Amino acid sequence: MRPMIGRLAARLPMLLVLFCLAALSRPSFAQEEDGLLPVTQAYRLSTDTSTPGVLKLHWDIAPDYYLYRGRMKFKPADGVTLGEATFPDGEKHHDEYLGDVEIYHHAIDASVPYTLAPGSTRLRVGVQFQGCHEVDPKICYPPHTEQLDLPLPVGTAASGGGSLGAALQSLGATHGSSGSDAPLPAEQAFRLEAVAQDARHLLLRWSMPPGYYLYRDQTRLQLRDAKGVELTPQWPAGTRKDDPHFGSVTVYFSELDLPVTVAGDIGGRTRLALEASFQGCQDGGLCYPMMTRALDVELGGAQSATGMPTATAPEAPPAAAGQGPLQTSLWLALLLALGGGLVLNLMPCVLPVLSIKAVGLLESGESPARARAHAIAYTAGVLVSFVALGLGILALRSAGHALGWGTQLQQPLLVGVLALVMLAVGLSMSGLVQFGASLGNTGAGLASRGGMAGDFFTGVLAVVVASPCTAPFMGSALAFAFAAPAAYALLVFVALGLGLALPFLAVGFVPALARRLPRPGRWMETLKQLLAFPMYLTAAWLAWVLANQRGADAVGLLLVAAVFLALSLWWFERSRGRAGLVRAPVLLALLATAVPLYALARLPPPVRAAHADTGVVAYSPQKLAELRAAGTPVFVDMTADWCVTCKANEHTVLDTAAFRALLQRTGAVYMRGDWTDVNPTIAAFLEHYHSPGVPLYVVFPRGGGEGRKLPTVLTSGLVEQALTEAAR
After folding, report:
1. Other CB atoms within 10 Å distance of the CB of residue 295
2. In angstroms, rounded to a whole number, what is the distance separating the alpha carbons of residues 389 and 337?
C-alpha cells in the first residue's frame, strides 16, 4: 500500500498540471458524452470547387450546437496559396472565457480564394473549426481539423502560363451552361464616367456589378491634343489579390472613385478630351481584354461625361461648396501653415517633446552663441523631418496609397517603435542612462560638441509626435498641399516646420527673450528628471493605441520589447569605458528587442465586438445614403485612436450629455468612422471632402444637399449651431 501511495505522490504534480490544462482549455468538457453527437455529425462539412480560384464551404450545424467564427482557420498544403476567407456576420454572443464573440447556428457558408502552383491538379487544405453544445450537458469540443483533398474542375488546373492570353479563361469550363453567371458585355460590366469638380480636379468613377473587379496597375489615363498637361491620379487603397497571372495586385470591386489632378497650362480650355484604358475581370470567371474609353469632360462646371455608349451613368457626388483645396492661394496656404505650425506647439501631442527642448533652452542661457546653435539645430531637425514627411506622403499617394496627415500611426510597428523611443528618452532624462549625444542635451561629451546632434534629434522627434495632432489653420493648408503641385506642397510643409520651430528661433536670436530665461543651476537636474514623466505618459498612450489596433497580444509584445530595451540601456551604462567584448551583450539585447517587434508587425487586427446601445452608428456609404434618403440629419465623425485632436474633441464635446441631448432634440444621427487602421472607405470620404486626415466632421442637412464641413477643433456652440441649422 505504501509503495502505491508513494507512486501517487510522485505523480501528483503531473496530475495537477494535466488537470489545470484541461480546466483552462474550455469549461465543462465532459468525459461522458451521452447524447452528444460526434464532431463530424454535429458539424457536417461539405465543399464546392466548381468556381475556379474559390473554395466554397458549407457547414450543416445540428440543433443545440453552434460554431465559433473566430475559431475557423485554414492551412494550405505545399503549392497552395490562400487568400482571406469570407464569412457572413454571425450572432453576437458573450462567452465566459473568450469574451464577446460571433457564433453560427443551423448552417454557415464561407469561401476562401486560392491560387495553385503550376501543374497542380488537386486542392489540399486543412480546415480547423470548433464549436459547442449549448444545452445540458454543456460542453465545447476541442478544435477539430479536416484535411481536404479535392479534385479541380476540368480545365481549371494551374498552369505555368503568365501571358494575357493565358488569363482569358474558358467561360464554358468556368460556369457551365446555366447562363446565370454569364459575363456581361464590357460596357455594362465596367461603366465609366468623369466629372470636373473644378478646372484642376476631375473625378472618375467606375461602376461594376457585384463580382467584377478592376486592376489598378492596368489602368492608363491620357489627354488627347493637350501637350504639356499632365494627369495625376490619387489612387485610393484597394483590395490586395493574389492573381495567378499577375501576382500580388491591387484591384477594386463594385465601385471606384478616382480623383485626378490636372497639372500644366490648360489655357482657355473649356473641355478636356480624356482617354482611359483599363482592364478588369469577373471574379472566378473570364478576364476582359484591355478596354479604352474616350470621354469629353466639360470644365465649366460639374457636368459629367460618360464613356458608355449606352445607358446613363449615375450622378457623381458633387464637391463641397467652397471646399476645393486649390481655391486657396499659395500665399494664404503658406500663412495658414505657418500659423498652424505655431499653434501646434500648444497641442498636447507636442508638449512631451517640448519638455526636452525646455531643458536645452535653459542650458543655453549661459551664452547667446550657444542659444543660437540650439535654435538652428532644432529648426534644422524640424524642417528636414517635415520635408521628408511631405515627400513620403506625396510619393505614396501618387503611387495609389491613401495616406494623409498622421496615417503613419496606422502602422502598429511604428507605434511600437515610437513608444520605445519615448521610453528611452524618459530613461535618459531620469538619469538612468547617458548617451554620447544625449537626447536631453546633457552630458559633458555633448556639451563639448555644442549639443547639435541632440537638438537636431529633438526636432525630428517633435515632428514625429506632432503628427497625431491637427491644429487650427493646418487643415486647409494640408489640403492645399495634397492637391497642389509637388513644389508648392513642399513649401507648405516647410512653412509648417517654421511655425513649429518659431518660438525657439525667437529665443535663440532675440537676446531680450533669452535674458528672460532662468539661469542654469543645480535645480535643472530636478526639473529634467521631473519632465521625464510626460515621456512615460506618451509611451503609455502609444501602448493604448496599440491595444486598440492589434489587441492585448500587441501590448504584451511591446512590454517584452521594453524590458529588453531597458536591459540593453542598463548594460550600456554599466559597461561604459570597458572593452568591446564586455559591451557585446548590449547588441544582443537590442536584437532581442527587435524579435517581439517583428512578431507585433505580423499580428492581425482583432475582431471588434459590437457595442450595443451606444447611440453611435458605424459609418458606411450605404447607411449614410439610407439616412439621407429618409430625410434624417446626420453628424459624421471621422476619427482615429491615435488622433489626439479627435480625442480632445470627443472628451469636451461629443461624448457629453449635452451632445446626446442635442442629437435627440434635432433628430440627428451620430455616425462615426474609425480610421485607426487602414480603411479605403473612410479614405475615400476624406478625399471627397479634401481632408488631409482626421478629424473630419461633416453635418448633412435634413433636406438634402452637400454636407457642411466643420473645423477640426470643435466647440459645443459650433456643433449646436450646425445641427440646429441641419434639422430645419
Report:
1. 21
2. 15
Is a pLDDT exceeding 60 seen at residue 179? Answer: no
Any residues with CB less than 8 A from the CB of 449 and at least 6 apart, and which? 437
Q: What is the mean pLDDT of residues 561-589?
A: 81
Best-predicted range by mean pLDDT (282-291, 348-357, 492-501, 675-684) = 492-501
Specify the pLDDT at position 659.
Answer: 94
- Cβ–Cβ under 8 Å, residues 686 and 619: no
What is the C-alpha to C-alpha distance for residues 250 and 229, in angstroms, rounded to an integer? 27
For residue 675, give the nearest of 645, 708, 642 by alpha carbon: 642
Look up residue 433 and give its three cell numbers: 542612462
Q: Contact at 8 Å (CB) between 693 and 404? A: yes
Residues 415/492, Cβ–Cβ less than 8 Å: no
* DSSP letter, residue 518: P
C-alpha span between 412 and 63 (Å, rounded): 42
Q: Helix, strand, or coil here: 246?
A: coil
Tell me which residue of 520, 513, 511, 528 sits closest to 365, measured CA to CA.
Answer: 520
For the stretch 460-474, what's the b/e string if a residue is b when 16 or more beta carbons lie within 10 angstroms of its beta carbon? bbbbbbbbbbbbbbb
Cell 570597458: give the residue: 578
The residues facing 728 across adjacent strands are none
Tell me the CA distances in angstroms from 418 to 403, 409, 465, 635, 675, one per residue in order: 19, 9, 8, 33, 19
Query: DSSP character for 607?
Result: P
Question: Looking at residues 566-582, what average pLDDT do you find?
Answer: 77
Which residue bears the cell 451606444? 614
- The HSE-up count of residue 345 (CA atoms within 13 Å, CB side) is 19
Residues 603 and 556: their CA atoms lie apart, in Å, by: 12
Q: What percent of the chain has pLDDT over 90?
A: 13
pLDDT reading at 288 higher than 70: yes
Alpha helices in 322-366 (DSSP H): 330-344, 351-363
Residue 207 near residue 218 (C-beta atoms within 8 A): no
Residue 388 confidence class, pLDDT cut points 50, 70, 90: confident
Beta strands, E only, 569-610 = none
Per-residue pLDDT, averaged over 256-281, amounts to 83
Cα 471 to Cα 643: distance, rounded to the nearest angstrom = 11
Kindly list the structural domains of the chain, giving each domain's residue range(s) and its CATH number in brackets, ordered by start: 39-48+61-151 (2.60.40.1250), 186-309 (2.60.40.1250), 326-421+434-532 (no CATH), 616-726 (3.40.30.10)
Q: Is 222:260 a contact under the CB 8 Å cutoff?
A: no
Helix, strand, or coil (residue 401): coil
Taking the C-alpha atoms of residue 355 and residue 361, their distance in angstroms, rounded to an integer, is 10
Q: Rounded distance, CA 240 to CA 272, Å? A: 32
d(CA 404, CA 389): 10
pLDDT in tens, 646-684: 888 999 999 999 999 999 999 999 999 988 887 777 877
| pLDDT(350) > 60 | yes
Cis amide linkage into residue 137, ω under 30° from 0: yes
**Of the segments 182-191, 471-480, 638-647, which one has the largest average pLDDT value?**
638-647
Q: Where are the alpha helices (DSSP H) in 510-531?
A: 511-515, 523-530
Residue 297 is predicted with a pLDDT of 82
Listed residue (116, 136, 113, 174) closest to 28, CA to CA: 136
Q: What pLDDT score does 558 carry?
A: 93
Q: Is the dihedral of CA 353, 423, 439, 496 positive or negative?
A: negative
| Residue 723, amino acid | L
